[in-house]
Amino acid sequence: MPTTFLIINPASGSFSRRRIAQVVHSLTRAGLPPIIHPVRNPAEAYPCCQAIRRVREHPFIIVAAGDGTFNAVLNGLGPGPATLAVLPLGTSNVLAAELGIASLADGIARICAGKTGPLATGLLEFDAGRRYFALMAGSGLDGAVVGGVRAGEKRVLKQGAYALSAFRAALGWDRGMQEIVADGKCCLCHTAVVCNASRYGGNFRLSPGSSLFRSGFEIACVTKADRRGYLAIARNLFLGRPMPDTAITWLTATEIELRGTKPIQLDGDFVGHGPARITAVADFARLIM
User: Fold this and answer.
1) pLDDT grade, residue 1 (50/70/90)?
2) Distance separating alpha carbons of residues 279 and 151, to the nearest angstrom
3) Which residue would you say has higher pLDDT here, 153 or 139?
4) Which of 78, 174, 257, 265 could form an S-S bond across to 143 if both were Cys, CB 3.0 to 4.6 Å?
5) Chain mean pLDDT for the chain
6) Quick one: pLDDT at residue 246?
7) What 3-state class would DSSP assign to 22?
């Protein structure tokens, strides 16, 4: 039986000591007693997983935290023979929603069952370095909204902090466009969301054709710098309707160039500004389904 590592982040949006005690008890009863690694923020998960990788060739890592912490785990490990799992203890829990994990107990049951699939990711390369992502990369208004989220507001308002940041972005509206190149095809857009998964911002389905277990992206290109178009997108997301064709142009690709200097977010965290290149990465690790 492989050693089980449990990454916990007490600053995550849904963290509680009672829930972690439930996780540890259930895993131990299932023969998976975990070694617990607490981190104070996602950045601390990066060196933690680098250290795990040095001492375990085939690590089994459970991330009981949010999407940002899971992203840091990806980047600390890099591609290889790891097995990963997620438990929904973050703010938005997009990855857990994408996997259909309905509750903490459901996530634990899936870990005990042990069914896995091949996780495909994206790799973003830009002046500040290189970063892997599991869910999405957003450039333009999407990146600006995530970059404008304030830590104190996120602690208090949870997902409402993103809505507040979007309101501020609307007041200081940037109409500048950017060019992206997706497998050689050019598109001029205001925002580009590179989808490696179907869900966005929680349990909202933006790109139904995207999958964590298939390499390649669907790209939602918002081609007009129009507030009304974004309101239509937000309304359809909230109501579970298809995206309006007048607001979004869809592209598919495995290699993407983000030209210009627009802000970029990965998996719900701001990382910097373009230009950047994004490449699909198949078989990054195994992921508990």
Assistant:
1) low
2) 30
3) 139
4) 265
5) 94
6) 86
7) helix
Instruction: Look up tokens 């005990």; give the residue.
Output: 112
Print burial letters for 8-24: b (CB count within 10 Å at least 16), e (below 16).
Answer: bbebbbbbeeebbeebb
**Beta carbons within 10 angstroms of residue 244's beta carbon:** 12
First-last CA distance in the chain:
19
For 154, which DSSP code? H
Closest to 247 (Cα-Cα) out of 270, 225, 223: 223
Per-residue pLDDT tens over the stretch 2-13: 799 999 999 888
Fold of 124-283: Tumour Suppressor Smad4 (2.60.200)
107 burial level (CB within 10 Å; 0-12, 13-18, 19+) = buried
CATH of 4-114, one of 3.30.70.260, 3.30.70.3340, 3.40.50.10330, 3.30.230.10: 3.40.50.10330
Mean pLDDT, residues 243-267: 94
Closest CA to 71 of 258, 269, 205, 228: 269
223: three-class secondary structure by DSSP:
coil
How confident is the model at residue 202, as a pLDDT?
Answer: 83
CA dihedral 87, 92, 94, 96 (to 10 degrees): 20
> Cα separation of 134 and 20, whole Å?
24
Asked if residue 92 has pLDDT above 90, the reply is no
Please give the Cα distance from 272 to 104 (Å, whole number): 33
- E-strand stretches of the chain: 4-8, 34-38, 60-65, 83-88, 116-126, 129-133, 136-140, 178-182, 185-189, 191-195, 199-200, 204-205, 217-222, 248-253, 255-258, 263-266, 269-273, 276-288
Residue the block writes with tokens 């107990």: 105
